[in-house]
Queue: 2 jobs
Job 1
Amino acid sequence: MTLQFSLGAAAPETVDSACVLVGVYEHGVLTSAAARVDNAAGGLIKRQVESGDISGKTGSSTLLFAPQGITARRVLVVGLGAQKSFDAARFQKIHLEAARALGKLPVADAVSYLSEVEVPGRDSAWRVRTAVLAIDHAAYRYTATFKPRDKQPKPPELASVALAAGDEAQAGLAQALAIAEGVRFARELANLPPNICNPAWIAAQAQAFADAQDDKVSCQVLDHVEMDKLGFGSLLAVARGSVNKPKLVVLQYRGGSADEKPYALVGKGVTFDSGGISLKPGPGMEEMKFDMGGAAGVLGAFIAAVRLGLALNLVCVVPTVENMPDGDAYRPSDVLTSLSGLTIEVLNTDAEGRLILCDALTWTAQTFQPQAMIDAATLTGACVIALGKHASGLMSKHDDLAAELLAAGEHTLDRAWRLPLWDDYQAQLESGFADVANIGGKSAGAITAACFLSRFTDGQRWAHLDIAGTAWDEGRKGLATGRPVTLLTQWLMDRAG
Ligand code: BES
Ligand code: MN
Ligand code: ZN
């Protein structure tokens, strides 16, 4: 069941709800909503500030149960940190933390006044959008592969949240609901195990989405026979080791006029990356089910764009394969002929993402002549070393396109950071046996991977997002994050004007 959101503006002390959320900064500075609750409840919040029970520290929260003088059953007092340094990232963080705390309480509905907290440089529509996305993110539960729970009575679960905001924020709510659907789709797809979410499964999900839309949306799936006829020699080599046959999934949305070139999103869809013959070490290999995070991300952004009804044309292309060792698997030293005609010497079968993306990028450019082409891929461990899990790596030769994407990431807090794509790095890809090698050696691994892709995007307005560090949360229970759905959707919204 999806969480319901609405906007409302009743006073916090008289609103009828299972839980009201109000914010308190450090050093006992109350927000106006907290002050109203405090007044009505005879100074209850201020007394707890004085006693030290309420610190105001970022992410902390204190539950007041059935306080006298107010209508709501509970008040969750949420710490906002220091007031003078309060910013957009903090606004998002306190919503994530508050929603996590709320999710542990037996409440079905809540009213949040945290969306009223001023953020320098951001308007109320931004605040509502960011709040809804953060709360929906925290409320997401992965349940698909657990034994179905017995129908015994359970404590109530959060089902609806009202946010304090005026009508001017309605647009922010509408945007958030569209983006949240894309994010949830991406997370669920990426969280599914690879014995379920294989290339055929991804194709079926895309097809099912398209079938449920009007005729502005269509889906086409190329199988290995069709790709073979077209000459996808690089992609098909990667796929050869798996019984799960590869697919090229193509979604089209016609929201703009017929003569307008589309924008193109291309996502790496490796449903499991064992490394192939260049087998990965055992520990951590299970995380390579998330190696289709780029595919999930571009599909999620596509869904959000359709839901928003953006006035532009969009194509979403997902090359999807499984990378496995096998008697028929491709091997180090193989020379492949890509769709572009360029030959590739395979020096490591674990550098497979670029090998499926190069053919997908070539095909997308040839088929659609897009206005701009963005790929998203969990491409390199090197990007995780360089940027960690907070920023996606952005590489492009087009400064204007890079600036657009960085701005979209900054605005939505789904942030990217640029790495250079200078020709100086291209020499690392030289091969004695083919036009290009598929790895570039020890240094600058994220950049040489992008350099490899750049050889297949000549003449295109193209940017590459390496989401290896951002697509999922690490750890045994780490879930897919849905990044970069929000960044890409914002970029598309900005393009649609
Ligand atoms: N899917 C991996 C990249 C990856 C690794 C993403 C760890 C997230 C966490 C990719 O296919 C890969 O294996 N890349 C190799 C490239 C190397 C062989 C040049 C890598 O990063 O080690
Ligand atoms: Mn790999
Ligand atoms: Zn991979």
Note: The longest strand covers residues 313-323.
Job 2
Amino acid sequence: MARKKISLIGGGQIGGVLAQLIALRKLADVVLFDIVEDMPQGKTLDIIEASRIDGFDVKLTGVNSYEGIKDSDIVIVTAGLPRKPGMSRDDLLVTNAKIMNSVAQGVKEFAPNAIAIIISNPLDAMVTLFQKVTGFPHNRVIGQAGVLDSSRFSSFIAWELGVSVKDVNAMVLGGHGDTMVPLVRYANVNGLPVMEQLEKKYNSAEKAKEVMDAMVKRTKDAGGEVVKLLKTGSAFYSPASAATAMAEAILGDQKRVLPSCVYLNGEYGVKGYFVGVPAVLGANGCERVLEVSLNEEEKSAFDKSVNAVVSLVADMERLGF
Ligand code: TXD
């Protein structure tokens, strides 16, 4: 059986780490595309030259032409500018919409059957634009935000409770912006509610809430925290890991339940928008959306986040995209 093929559109920070992770996990052959001449060729050569050491024999190719992405099973898009300190994700809208427009046309022409995972920011708008330009069925266009945001939230919980992060399950829903919704009530350590553990640790419901509020805030600001420390560019190791897990779920038809930015057709009371919700990822991309009951407070936070996505998409449309 021929090996699967993943094309990475954008060979910058995230694209480079993605190429290496996919090779290390022997997931698929990799094509790294960028408009910068020689750079994707240089990065893939560098990774290949470690293959004897790391023990992988998947093929990696750097290209500057869309021809190279033909017959891709998965396309992962990171093309676009990252944030600088002080910028919000939404500040990237105009520049990255232009880039996404051209990327989507290239993918539509040369990899019309691929499943697309979009990473570029502002995420929710870029996913929407990619689907609009390609006309791909909605199940084949998925944005990466929730896997990373949830992993960040899980890390903070693990540190706070002094437990392995492998035993923490915590999900973040909504848009990939300041309004994202970490689901506190459902967060658990191997089934044990996190809030209860915090209350026991501090012997105070009030203090537990304070500590949780701080973790929720840090989760929402986590991307900005990294941007501020790096000074140039934004997080790249963790977004690459997140998208690799999604690609692995799809190629392996794993039916993993991963919070993803997917098209809602009435679920959660939303119709016609891409929003972060728990999705079943398998061979057909987003195969199903899982609904979870939200209490009034959670529902209102989720609706606020959906409204932010709706107005971001409206801004993009006003700009002519
Ligand atoms: O969780 C998430 N979704 C994210 C998203 C987390 C962190 C960062 N996220 C966003 O991903 C970030 O805000 C950016 O919009 C993208 C890519 O971030 P990265 O850190 O990889 O940016 P780089 O290093 O600047 O790489 C972008 C590459 C660069 O090599 C450009 O030459 C290339 O994109 N580029 C293009 N490639 C193809 N086609 C076109 N038109 C193009 N224009 C630029």
Note: The chain has a mean pLDDT of 97.
